């Protein structure tokens, strides 16, 4: 049996999403990028872009 999960993507600005992602990682430091996107209801590519920026700025360790 295949289960499909529908995710409603929220459209929020970059700075708001960046803050939410930083807050998320304070509580869930071992999360994968797809989990962040899923839990915060954000577009996956948008989350990846922000995570790359946060890593480059030194806010997060190396993301694999």
Characterize the structure shown.
The chain is an all-alpha fold. The chain has three helices and no strands. Helix 1 (about 15-25) crosses helix 3 (about 45-55) and helix 2 (about 35-40) packs across helix 3.
Question: What's the topology here?
Answer:
Elements: H1 14-27, H2 33-40, H3 44-56
Helix pairs in contact: 1-3, 2-3
Keywords:
single chain; 3 helices; 64 residues; Arc Repressor Mutant, subunit A; mainly alpha
Provide a compact summary of the structure.
The chain has 64 residues and is mostly helical. It contains 3 helices and no strands. The longest helix has 14 residues, at 14-27.
Q: Kindly report how far apart the N and C termini lie.
A: 31 Å
Number of helices: 3
Question: In percent terms, what proportion of residues is strand?
Answer: under 5%
How many domains, as an integer? 1
